[in-house]
Amino acid sequence: MQKKDLLYEGKAKKLYKTEDENLLIAEFKDDLTAFNAEKKGSESGKGALNCLISTELFALLESNGIKTHLVETLDDNNQLVKKVDIINIEVVVRNVATGSLTKRLGIKDGTVLPFTLVEFYLKDDDLNDPIINDEHCIILNLVDDRSKLEVLRQKGRAINDILKEFFAKRRLNLVDFKVEFGIDKDGEILLSDEISPDSCRFWDMDTNEKMDKDRFRQNIGDGNVKVAYEEVLKRIKEVK
Length: 240
Ligand code: 5GP
Hints:
Blueprint: E1 6-9, E2 13-17, E3 23-28, E4 31-34, E5 39-42, H1 46-63, E6 70-75, E7 78-82, E8 85-86, E9 89-96, H2 99-105, E10 112-122, E11 131-132, H3 134-139, H4 147-168, E12 172-183, E13 189-192, E14 200-204, H5 214-217, H6 226-238
Antiparallel strand pairs: 1-2, 2-3, 3-7, 4-5, 6-7, 8-12, 9-10, 9-12, 10-11, 12-13, 12-14
Bound molecules: guanosine-5'-monophosphate.
């Protein structure tokens, strides 16, 4: 399958049309951004690592009954994916308080939450991705039916259950992550976008070292992420 016109360029990926109107090619870029692109960087090979990590995790989730947009990974940086209408809600799932949750509510960083917390954020850079509730989702027409919000929450929790256990076996604590969903031509809600260290927080269970984009956000190890992402990929692959 060949790339045709560029359909969309985001902060971390480009989406191309293909000869099949229902399929797109997602190209993972080496660019890194944080704080709504106020901080920008790039690291050669980062896109390929995220593409490979996301491929592994989407395959794991598919095999556990979570439907995704991924059709096939074409090469190191490119995935063939089903075309979906993206739901403009960032679904954030949290096991441990850190990041914006600690800032917003004053919960001590590292506090293990008493249950898995699912939050919705509006996917809108101009507004700085504000947190929203169910009523905001309806007012903004982000979904046509309130029941879809419960489906998103259930899917978020199901993904968390699978990934948390998977990473615990690899001595990585899945602290939190962000996922996006889209609706395909048959009206099915599919996990879309990516799941990678750009969109998750992983803390090493033995050393507490951060193995994710917080290294870039917080300038840990000079802000370089590749070595940590390589380690995440190695651990994903080493235990079967
Ligand atoms: P926080 O709300 O604490 O900044 O982020 C919670 C989790 O969602 C983190 O794992 C973070 O990486 C992810 N996340 C939140 N917003 C975005 C976003 O706009 N892009 C990406 N890639 N991840 C995000």
